[in-house]
Amino acid sequence: MHPCHHAKTHPDKPAYIMAPSGKTVTFKELDERSNQIAHAFRNAGLKPGDTIALFAENSARYFEICWAAQRSGLYFVCVSSRLTAPEVQYIIEDSGSTLLIASAGKADIAEQVKELTSLGHYWCIDGNIDGFDGLEAHQTAFSTTPIADEMAGTDMLYSSGTTGRPKGIRPPLEPNTPIDADNVLLQITRALAGAGPDNVYLSPAPLYHAAPLRWCMTFTRLGATLVVMEKFDPEAFLDCVQTYKATHTQMVPTMFVKLLKLPEDVRNSYDVSSLKFVIHAAAPCPIPVKEQMIEWWGPIIDEYYAGSEGNGMTWAKSAEWLEHKGTVGRAIFGELHICDENGDEVPVGEEGQVYFGGTAPPNYHNDPEKNASALNPKHPDWSSLGDVGKVDDDGFLYLTDRKAFMIISGGVNIYPQEAENVLITHPKVADVAVIGVPDEEFGEAVKAIVQPMPGIAPSDELASELLEFCRSELSKIKCPKSVDFDLELPRHPTGKLYKRLIRDRYWGKKESRIV
Predict the structure, then answer these.
(1) Residues 6 or more apart in contact with residue 491 via CB below 8 angstroms
(2) pLDDT digit string (tens) for 313-347?
(3) Which pLDDT tens digit goes with each residue over 447-497?
(4) Position 140 confidence tier, pLDDT thresholds 50, 70, 90
């Protein structure tokens, strides 16, 4: 399946609608414009296997560029619109991009990037950028028919940098692969999400991130209409569901938390009965949060665990989760293995590092050391994303935390996700991070950094209330010893928490930026 087929059968059907503007691009327009841009790529000297970079906010032009690259056999690097010029420069140069396309909304950064780099071409969309060629005007000189040498390209995405500098994931490109060739995510979406051309898929997240980009492009392959939010807002999300009769969506747990913290009368004022399927990932979801979401929306909320690396995937339907609360599912792509520090498998129910076998290992661009570190020391055909978890007797995986976030206090391993899952349910907490901080006696002490709800003032009394609340749910050793407050935690729009930035404040390291 491919949007070019839907352009023939349903040319006037909306391929996607931008919210809140309502700007619409039909399948015919998407097909023709992506063909024009594909011709522009070839005219610029780009050949299959080359790389372009896209630096933009969510835009009606975004998918035209992605599909143009996909049908030209190119790698397309979707760069976070939150980056500084040196961070964009790093990704452009590391990926080997030879063309940068930037949106006018990022003009200040894009102009700096042009000064720092020496690419063959700089194009802009959605307005003018000094020194950039306007793509919308440029592409009109080219044909709306396909290029002669179409072949499938793919995304090359960079990790979000939550534990270090972002790394590019560059999957191999098979020469002459048809642009409408099947793939694993397409098969999963049809089989488990019941997806098809009658769906309306609501995307509330930044398109430069792996999950929103890939889910959107998959639903477009299937002929569904996308509704793309410029940015997530909980009440605006509910309004989009009601207005567009959305049937499918992909979310992250922090979005659930924000929805549940809306006043009950606001939540109940919107009709969400059109929703048939909701998928979430990116971080473990606190059990009480998911219980409330299923009670509100019904057993339509599925969960998966996977990474941009594509080395494995687990999946849990709502009914399975309700029987195995806290799970992220059973393996549907790859074989699960839980291993100790030596690489040996541990018994069922014991924690260890999560590995997938029977799949291709991650391919981190220009980083052979990271590629090697992802492999099991005794089973080099098993690879890991660096997470810690356990499986039960039925094969369901439960994530404990990222290995890099583990706190060692007095020789005891503590995974902060447990305390975070408890504290986020407190009505006075908007967001929370639990980290290890230096401690002379124990090496590390457990600390919570809390973002209070609007209107709630930080105080010693609130800190004591939160500590007592946590101790009522977890053993004392797993709970924070102290609480600090922050007006806003550094969280990526996709829901990932930049815990390393918070840790750096307490460990005397120079604070790095969100990437």
Answers:
(1) 254, 431, 497, 498
(2) 999 999 999 999 999 999 999 999 999 989 999 99
(3) 999 999 999 999 999 999 999 999 988 878 889 999 999 999 988 766 677
(4) very high
Please report, for residues 176, 191, 295, 472, the alpha-carbon distance to residue 250 in angstroms, rounded to integers and kept in the order given: 31, 16, 18, 33
Burial class (CB in 10 A: 0-12, 13-18, 19+), 253: buried
Instruction: List Cβ neighbours of 306 (8 Å cut-off, separation of 6 or more).
Output: 281, 312, 313, 314, 333
Query: Where along the chain do its domains lie?
Result: 20-181, 406-507
Q: Per the structure block, which two tokens stand in for 175?
A: 């020469």
Q: What is the DSSP string of 119-182?
A: -SEEEEESS--TT-EEHHHHHTTS-SSPPTT-B--EE-EE---SSSS--EE-PPPPTT--TT--
Q: What is the mean pLDDT of the chain?
A: 91
Class assignment of domain 406-507?
alpha beta
Give me the numbers of helices (H) and strands (E) for the chain, helices first please.
Answer: 17, 26
Q: Of 147, 179, 152, 153, which Cα lies nearest the Cα of 39?
A: 147
Asked if the peptide bond before residue 368 counts as cis, ω within 30 degrees of 0, the response is no
* Torsion sign over Cα 200, 201, 206, 209: negative
Topology at the third CATH level for domain 20-181: Rossmann fold (3.40.50)
Q: Alpha-carbon distance 309 to 233, whole Å? A: 29
Q: Give the tokens for residue 245.
A: 């009769």
Return the DSSP state at 106: G
pLDDT at 412: 67
